[in-house]
Amino acid sequence: MPLLDLSSTKASIMAANLIPHANPNPLILSPPQSSLSSAIYSSPCKSLLFKAPSFGPLRSRSIRRWYVSSIGASLSAVDSPATSGSQGEKKLLLEVKDLKAVIAESKQEILKGVNLTIYEGEVHAVMGKNGSGKSTFAKVLVGHPEYEVTGGSIVFKGENLLEMEPEDRSLAGLFMSFQSPVEIPGVSNIDFLNMAYNARRRKLGLPELGPIEFYAYIFPKLDLVNMKTDFLNRNVNEGFSGGEKKRNEILQLAVLGADLSILDEIDSGLDVDALRDVAMAVNGLLTSNNSVLMITHYLRLLEFIKPKCIHVMEDGKIVKTGDISIAEILEKEGYKAISGA
Question: Beta partners for 293?
Answer without folding.
Answer: 124, 262
